[in-house]
């Protein structure tokens, strides 16, 4: 049973604000109250700020700089455009790569092993700066929901979302429903 106000998730903050405005102008009195309208990133950010382990979510600028630094130290990432690919991959797959045993390194090609080593270097840089990717934070928050350490809440996905593995885990743990 939810213990907080319901949350509606939208692809962009503009769509969330438009939904809030539409609810405020609806004919039913009070239709705008009693629900939070956020993006998925906003939900993770709010929950992590309240319930996280003290690490800070990495910003896009920090990610860009740290990915470029990690790419410059890895032979596998020497190709043009490697830092931006590394950056995108690190953000989307942080939860899976946080677990040392999750990647079957023995089954990878030498180039893939090099890229995984480069990503591990990036995650070491994050750890040294007390930073965490939102995907890994979402995965940890999901575990907290499953363990009963994070209050349950009603979440409705009102807009088509691109979700990473960690966010999918969090939405599943929260029992999110889809609308529309």
Mean pLDDT: 82
Number of strands: 6
**Spans of at least 5 consecutive residues with low confidence:** none
Topology pattern, helix = H, strand = E? EHEHEHHHHEHEHE
The Rg value, from CA coordinates, equals 19 Å
Q: Biggest sheet, strands in spatial order? A: 2-1-5-6
- Summarize the biggest pleated sheet: 4 strands, parallel
Shape: elongated
Q: What is the SS-derived class?
A: alpha/beta
User: How many separate helices?
Assistant: 8
Distance between the termini: 23 Å
Give the % helix.
Answer: 40-55%
| Share of β-strand residues | 5-15%
Would you kindly provide a written description of the structure presented here, covering whatever features stand out?
- The chain has 180 residues and is an alpha/beta fold.
- The chain is built from 8 helices and 6 strands.
- A 4-stranded parallel β-sheet has the order 2-1-5-6.
- Helix 8 links the parallel strand 5 and strand 6.
- Helix 3 crosses helix 6 (110-128) and helix 7 (134-146) packs parallel to helix 8 (165-173).
